[in-house]
Specification:
126 residues; single chain
Amino acid sequence: MKKGKNKLKKIFFSGKTAFWAVVSGALMLPGLTFALQGETTLKNPLKVDSVAALMKAIADIIFQIGFVVAAIFIILSGFKFVTARGKPEELAKARSMFMWTILGTAILLGAVIIADVIQTTVQGLK
């Protein structure tokens, strides 16, 4: 039984077999391209026509996700303010969390505005 396995190993994993596999695959490629000759059009799954529109779509998706995350962090920082119960250290943490959340939201909004400005500028150059 071992001799049969070794023989198969030699046949399938030898250099000659790999060479002929590559050659036969290369010979099949033209046939595949001729078979697909009737349907050579590609459909755009993104529904955008330019790079600027793609950037705008990505920025919109990031803004939507970021806006939800910012709302969650604003609620969480409010919860921290309530649970601080007047402790100065806890109030400082809650204030810092609220400040960074507002700053991040402003940066997110600024990025969307900058992407929109870039898109309108690029479209104006055409």
